[in-house]
Amino acid sequence: MALVSADSRIAELLTELHQLIKQTQEERSRSEHNLVNIQKTHERMQTENKISPYFRTKLRGLYTTAKADAEAECNILRKALDKIAEIKSLLEERRIAAKIAGLYNDSEPPRKTMRRGVLMTLLQQSAMTLPLWIGKPGDKPPPLCGAIPASGDYVAKPGDKVAARVKAVDGDEQWILAEVVSYSHATNKYEVDDIDEEGKDRGLTQSPPGDTPSAAGGSSRCPSGRPTLRQTQRPCFRRSSLCWPCIHRPPASTGP
């Protein structure tokens, strides 16, 4: 029943998202005329080689209107991003519910170890579809946005992807990409599922897991030189540092 309810809500959200996309285009088309007027006014000012009180007053009004139009479009886009984030959350909840429902199905054993290339492709797709956080001027990014860490009392939820430190077969510790199954406040222990080998549960007691980002916030949230855990085509993470290419300059930020 929960799965049916989630499907129904996702369908509603997709309809609402489609309407917001149409509103965005309508708002952009409506404001286009004002932007053209601004450009033409500047061209006339250059021709006359002076800024008269008339042009000053006209431009002030045009720019005020353009600012209001841009804010209206931004508000619509933020609503659309909220819908996308809610859809992604519902899809994840549906996946977890389906997984739990199938845990006791003996006809579907855990899958074998995933090929490394397939895993890397899935990780890349997951990173590319992270919800985008775009705050208003003065807003601070939320925890788990880009490289912003989680709060000290944060407890990872079932289904969260984390970098988990576990003991290998030889007794050495290593960081693996895992999915949280449950957390016990009594024992301060996480039960996690190895992403690379589904069905291989690992108990985590040595340290809290490192949560993967829940939202993308631009390169300004991931400064160059910051220590990080790098997922390579191997069974575990490797310690590394962020380094932006292109003459050591980060790409343009998507956040304010």
Topology summary:
Elements: H1 2-48, H2 53-101, H3 116-128, E1 161-167, E2 173-184, E3 189-194, E4 201-204, E5 210-211, E6 227-231, E7 237-241
Antiparallel strand pairs: 1-2, 1-5, 2-3, 3-4, 6-7
Short description:
The protein is α+β, with helices and mostly antiparallel strands and 256 residues long. The protein is 43% helix and 16% strand. The chain is elongated, with a radius of gyration of 24 Å.
Describe this structure in words.
- With 256 residues, the protein is of the alpha+beta class.
- The chain has two domains: 2-101; 116-241, SH3 type barrels (Roll), CATH 2.30.30.
- It is built from three helices and seven strands; from the N terminus they run αααβββββββ.
- Strand 2 and strand 3 (189-194) form a beta hairpin.
- The protein starts with a helix and ends in a 15-residue tail after the last strand.
- 10% of the residues are buried.
Mean pLDDT score, rounded? 74
Structural class: alpha+beta
Q: Which strand-content bin applies to the residues?
A: 15-25%
Number of helices: 3
Number of domains: 2
Low-confidence stretches: 104-110, 240-256
Side by side, the strands of the main sheet go 4-3-2-1-5
CATH fold group of the largest domain: SH3 type barrels
CA distance, first residue to last residue: 42 Å
CATH class value of the largest domain: Mainly Beta
Query: What is the helix fraction of residues, given as a range?
Result: 40-55%
Q: Tell me the number of strands.
A: 7
Shape: elongated
Pfam families: SGF29_Tudor (PF07039)
Region (Disordered): 192-233
Keywords: Coiled coil
Domain SGF29 C-terminal: 152-256
